[in-house]
Structure formats: structure tokens, C-alpha cells
């Protein structure tokens, strides 16, 4: 859980937001997600669904989601702003998912799916603040990106550049669970296709993915961008080697304009290919 900090520290995520937007060529803003004990200045206090709030924050708005301003009951539960319903309210929720949204085939399957998700952070904070990261008043708990597959690939590659560990993703469940609850509670990076209902909300594109990274991991990720090919480092693969790879394996890789020359590599690998051809 985070708190309001001095302007000197605020600059960190402001600068990082500008840098990652330029690096990836993002259409919108990276979204800062913060569990806070009070509302930020200038926030919208009108009612919004979580999936709407994500879009609005990427377009420049700051939103304060509370038990009173989160318009979707499921979002209120998944964000941990209130407990899961019981009794009649629980039966209504399951009926909605099975017979209205038609996301699950039966109440049994619905209950089984619920058992596979992490418990929400109930009682963590009274406010879940979503804002463009370059304007965020509070230090983020996590950073969310609305991006395409290539941008998501770059983020995943940067995250695993030093650890070699793949993220343990959660690609089922509600969008608010996949995009906010799971990364915040687990500390894992997550890549989300979103739930099918959320994809029908006006503003999301068919190719959009959501990538959410806990803030401490995002800071470490940004320290690697000058070393990793998914950041700003250039691949050191000679053109001659790429030509041979294309000829032998039909690997679709770009040619040498973006790559540095390495004559010793070229000689070494060409020798291997010549020996293979004999």
C-alpha cells in the first residue's frame, strides 16, 4: 500500500512513464494503480466500472474507485473494497454469470473457477486510484499497459532479461482480477486477454492486451532497457548470418539495417554452415 510522497520522489515514475511510452510507442498512457487510504486531488468521484476506469486513465483521467464509486459489483469484490457476497446476493451473481453473461456453463463451473483465483486484498485500502503514470500523485503499486502483442512481448522479455524466469500468468477470470488483483496480490507480472464481456466495452480494440507489472519489478525492468534487445540494445547478428539462416531454416528475421556488424561472428558461423553443407 502506498502513500503520498514528496515531489522529489514523484519524479521517478513520471520520468519512467515518459521513457516507456516513447520506447514502446504506446498510443495511450501507462496507468498507475495505487491502493491508497485517501483520495488524490483532482480525481473523478463519479461511478465507473473498473474496465472503463482503465481506459479513462490511459486517456488522461484520474479515477478514485471506492465502495461507493465502483459501479460493477464484481469489480468491488475483486479489488477488495468489499467482501464476496453470500446468500441470495451470491446466487444472483452466479445466475448472472451463467445465464446472463454466459461466461460459465453452470453454477458448479462458476464455483470451481472462483476457487482457482487468489483472494482479493480485502481491507488493504479504501481507495483504488487509477491515473496516467506521468501525472500520478501516489507511488504506484502496479503499472498497467494497454498494448499490442509486440509491445507485450517486449515487456515480458525485459522482465525476464536477468532472471530468465517466465511470468506465471492468469488469463482467466474477470478483467479487474487479471489486470489488478492478481498482480498486486501475487507480485507477478500478468498478461491478460481480458474477459470477453469487457472486450465489448466501447474503446477497446480487438488487438488490445493488458499487461500489468508490480511497480518494483517495473523499476528493475527499466534499468535493463539499454542492455536488452527488447529495449534499446541492438542485436549483434551479422547480415551474412541472417541470410544463411533464412536460406537454411526459413526464419523470418529482419535484415542488417538495425544490426551491428561482427565479422568474427560472421566467419565463425559461415564456417559452420559450409561444413554442414558438405
Describe the structure.
The structure is a single chain. The chain folds into two domains: 7-84 and 120-222, no CATH class; 239-277, no CATH class. 41% of the residues lie in helices and 11% in strands. It contains ten helices and six strands.
Note the beta-strand portion: 5-15%
The arrangement of helices and strands along the chain is HEHEHHHEEHHEEHHH
Oligomer: single chain
End-to-end Cα distance, whole Å, is: 64 Å
- Overall form: globular
The Rg value, from CA coordinates, equals 22 Å
Give the overall average pLDDT: 83
Beta strand count: 6
Kindly state the percentage of residues in helix.
40-55%
Describe the biggest sheet? Answer: 6 strands, antiparallel
Domain count, please report it: 2
State the helix count. Answer: 10
Low-pLDDT runs of 5+ residues are 1-10, 251-263
Strand arrangement across the biggest beta sheet: 2-3-1-4-6-5
Structural class: alpha+beta
Amino acid at each position: 500500500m502506498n502513500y503520498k510522497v514528496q515531489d522529489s520522489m514523484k519524479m521517478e515514475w513520471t520520468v519512467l512513464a515518459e521513457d516507456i511510452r516513447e520506447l514502446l510507442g504506446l498510443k495511450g498512457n501507462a496507468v498507475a494503480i495505487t491502493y491508497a487510504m485517501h483520495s488524490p486531488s483532482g480525481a473523478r468521484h463519479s461511478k465507473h466500472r473498473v474496465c472503463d476506469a482503465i481506459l479513462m486513465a490511459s486517456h488522461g483521467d484520474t479515477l478514485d474507485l471506492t465502495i461507493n464509486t465502483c459501479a460493477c459489483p464484481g469489480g468491488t469484490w475483486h479489488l477488495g473494497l468489499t467482501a464476496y457476497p453470500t446468500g441470495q446476493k451470491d446466487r444472483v451473481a452466479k445466475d448472472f454469470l451463467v445465464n446472463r453473461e454466459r461466461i460459465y456453463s453452470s453454477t458448479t463451473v462458476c464455483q470451481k473457477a472462483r476457487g482457482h483465483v487468489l483472494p482479493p486484498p480485502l481491507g488493504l485500502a479504501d481507495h483504488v486510484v487509477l491515473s496516467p503514470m506521468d501525472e500520478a500523485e501516489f507511488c504506484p503499486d502496479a503499472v498497467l499497459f494497454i498494448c499490442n502483442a509486440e509491445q507485450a512481448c517486449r515487456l515480458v522479455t525485459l522482465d525476464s532479461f536477468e532472471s530468465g524466469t517466465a511470468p506465471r500468468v492468469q488469463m482467466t477470470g474477470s478483467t479487474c482480477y487479471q489486470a489488478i488483483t492478481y498482480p498486486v496480490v501475487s507480485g507477478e507480472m500478468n498478461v491478460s486477454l481480458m474477459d470477453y464481456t469487457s472486450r465489448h466495452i466501447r474503446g477497446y480494440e480487438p488487438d488490445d492486451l493488458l499487461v500489468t507489472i508490480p511497480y518494483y519489478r517495473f523499476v528493475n525492468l527499466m534499468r535493463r532497457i539499454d542492455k536488452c534487445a527488447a529495449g534499446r540494445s541492438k542485436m549483434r547478428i551479422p547480415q551474412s548470418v541472417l541470410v544463411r539462416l533464412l536460406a537454411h531454416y526459413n526464419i523470418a528475421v529482419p535484415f542488417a539495417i538495425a544490426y551491428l556488424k561482427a565479422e568474427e561472428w560472421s566467419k565463425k558461423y559461415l564456417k559452420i554452415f559450409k561444413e554442414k553443407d558438405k
